[in-house]
Every structure is written in structure tokens, then in C-alpha cells.
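Late entry, evening session. Most of the bench is empty. Finally got around to the prediction I had been postponing all week. Sequence below, unchanged from the version circulated by S.P.
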Amino acid sequence: MRRNLLEKLFVICLIVFTNAGLFAQNNEGQIHGNFQVDAQIYRQDSAIGADVPPEKMGLNTYANFTFTKGDFSAGLRYEGYMNALLGYDEQYDGVGVPYRYISYQNDGLSITVGNFYEQFGNGLLFRSYEDKSLGYDNAIDGLRVKFNPYKGVYLKGFTGKQRSYFDVGPGIVRGVDGEFFINDIFSALSENKTQVILGGSFVSKYQKDEDPRFKLPENVGSFAGRASLVHGGFNLSGEYAYKYPDPSADNGYNIKFGDALLINATYSQKGLGIYLSMKRVDNMNFRSDRNASLNNLQINFIPAITTNHTYSLAAMYPYATQPNGEIGFHGEITKNFARGSTLGGKYGTNVALNFSRVNSLKTTPTVDGTGYESEYFAIGDEIYFQDINVKIHKKINSKWKTDISYLNIIYNKDVVQGLAGYGTINANVAIADVSYKFKPRHSLRVEIQALFTEQDNGDWAMGLMEYTIAPKWFINVSDQYNYGNSDDKLHYFNVAAGYKKGANRFQLGYGRQREGIVCIGGVCRNVPASSGFNISITSSF
């Protein structure tokens, strides 16, 4: 009831301020927004295990409205799930305005009341954001203050509760962060070619202890420090985060502290880019509700250091970050061979070589048997994930363009997806993406993909053809064929067509969706098998 009253109050305030802006004499007020609807009509398809929900149709709708006038801004987002598309949590149910805010900024001070998204550093302690494709939204509902008291000094702090579907979670989250651009603060260093940036954060949560079995800490604190060094084409950055003991359902109510270390290094010059990354995470699941699970009420974000593939078969085995313990490395070299060179040819050639690997931590049980210890940089014997891939982009002439990829993947399905009995999958993936331009606005793109593995469901082949009349029309047809499955050699066919006019885009499709998981940045959701018609409409103003 209280949240419904707050939503109504924010809507009334937005309408009042909007009308004030629209009818002001100088007419400075502006309204912007966007709209999105994704719907699917399901059909029974027993061959792939696709069931039809009782309502026979799923629909997710989003509409954002933002009003700005001078130093003032306000906004809200309407969401409707009638009912939510399969694969989204069933607690996304009904309609409402779960996101609304009013903000004011002047003389380096910014104040926001209501909902907001924010991130401290790399997110190891705190990140609130939303991703519709994952059904993920942990927006804070509360108060945020940002202040720039001096050149090169940026401070921010907040307190609030996290979004939990159409309500908020039981815990309170508080945090402060400071970032200091040393070369801006000290004028003597302003012309120095080496740039130094320092930062620090503190985040705590409060949740009442109502557990009859354990005496649990009601306040849990955490802190982090970070630094970046930039010199010419070289950039080195690192962040370390520490969390005090936080017994929860995630870690079996373990009283061990948690920590995370992330180090990134990049080097770039004309035609060459090098990226190296290292990450170690131990007991770093941090939620505002100690009993939450899946993607609910996450305070922090542990970024993945593996490649996020977009091609369908390459993305069949994506990596999900393991916050309870992992250690990993990632390296990438990108080379542009210049036009006119032997490997560059007339239009140049781009080659990217990528390697990432994530292992378990090397741990030993404590003497009392209540926990474990680990050497900090020791690598465990169990491989969670490995990806070695090479990508070649080549423009052959004014009409032909190609992208070729090869991947070798090791995927511990039991660990990554929290399953049992599947073991480790070894897969090789080959991809060819070829485009041909008939006329200035007419082009045809063809994808051919193949995945080879002796585990899981065996080998796959995939083909796609997409015809585009830029910038308005496209149509594509595709088929994924699980020909290596000895039990069911299934086809997952799809056809889709789209039309774009100005800021409006319409897409209609029909086909099958295979069961699996979708991951973005190490955050994942399960996708059930489905079949039927789907439609997507987006618009902005």
C-alpha cells in the first residue's frame, strides 16, 4: 500500500512539473522517452519440449518518460507483464510504475530521490543496473547525493532499498564513494603525460536477523580501493574489494570473509591493441537479502573476464561468474594489417586472438572443519571454463565483406549451471559470416556455423540468410540443426522480418527457441524451449 501511494505521488509530481514546463513562457521544458513491447504467442511443440502456458501468450511492455527543465529532471517507467514471457521470473506479474525519480543539480551538487542506477568503480562492491534481456533490475529506491566540491574530486553517497519485482527487498543498502583525478587536483601535474586516478568505496547493508537457527550479523560492511595509471597508449588499473563475514544461503551460512581482485592492463598504438586481465573472487556474493537466490537483490557485480559471444552456436556455452570462488585470466591481441600490405590487401585486414580461462580456487579445509583457507594466487585443479578463439575481419572489395571465427571451448556445465551429471564439455566452433552488397541499399548476409562436441547433445550446424534494404527493411531465415544428437536430430528454424521508420521499429517472427541459458557480462538467466509467433515494437521520442 505504501509503495502504491509513493508511485501515485511521483506520477502527480511529474505531471505537475511537466505541465509547468510546457506552459512556461520560455517553454524550456522537454519530454523524451521510449517504448518497447515484446510478445509471443506460444504453440505446443512436444519434439523440443515446448509447452503452452495457460494464457497462451506472453507480453513484456516498457515505457520510459523523462522530463527536463533547467537543473531539474524527473522521470518514470511503466512496466506491464501480461503474463511475463517464458524464461522471466513469474514474480514479474501485472502492471505498475516500479521506477520513478526526481532529480536536481546545481553548483556541483546533484540530489536524486526515488529510483536510480549507480556503480562504484568496477562494481565489485556496488552496481545497480537493469538489463531487459536478462530480466534483471536491482535499482535502488531511496536517496542519492553527488558532489563535485573541487576540480578533480567526485564524491557520491546513497541509501535505499533494492527493487524486488514490483516491490523492494527487506534490506537497507548504504554506500559512499570518492574518485580523485590527481592531475586535475594538483595544478603542477596538469601537463604531466602520466595520469593518475584513485578511488575508494564503502558499502554496508542492514537486514534484521529473524533466523531461528543462527545468530546472524544484521549489519555487514565492505570496502574497496582502486587505482588507474594512464600513460600514452598504456593503461593499468586495479581494484580490490573486501567484505566482512556475511552468512547467507549462497555460501551455506559460512562466516568466512569475502574478497575480490580485478586487474586490467591495455596497450594500444596504431594498428595494434593488447588487453590483459586477471580476476580472483572468493565468497563475494553480496545481497541485501541473505535468503535471496538467482539474480535477485544483488548489491555487487563481479564482471566476467571471458568473451561475450553474439553468434548463436558460439554463445551456446556462455560463462556465468562464480562469486563463491574462481580465479581467471584473459588476454587479447588485436592487429590491423594496413591497406596495401601483404596481409592487408586493398582494404586492410583485422585479426583478433583471444584467450580466457577460469579455474577453481585452491583451498584446504580449516583445522576445525568449519571453513577453508586458500593461497591467494594459487590456482585450483578444476577448470570451470576456457575459450581460445581467433577472429578475422576482411573486406574483399566494395561489395564483399567477411568475418571468420574459430573457437575452442572447455565448459564445466555442472559448475557453471549448477547442475549434476553433465561433466565437462569440449567443443570446437567454426563460423563464416559473409556479406554482399548488390546496390547501395541492398545487401545479403549469410552465416554458416558449426559446433563439434562428443559431449552434451553432440554436434550442431546452423545457417542464416538475411536480406536488407537499408535503412527500412530486413528479412532473415535461419535453422539450427542438432544433427549429432543420437536421440533427437532436431531442427530449430526461425523466420523474421522487420521494418524501421524514423525512430520506430517493428519485427515479426516465427520459429523455435532451444532450451539453454543467456549470459551477458557473466550474469545469466535460464531460457526454456518455446515455439510460436513473436513480435517486437520499439519507439523513441
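Two things to note before I forget:
Helices lie at 2-22, 182-185, 413-416.
The chain has one domain: 89-498+510-521.
Will write this up properly tomorrow.
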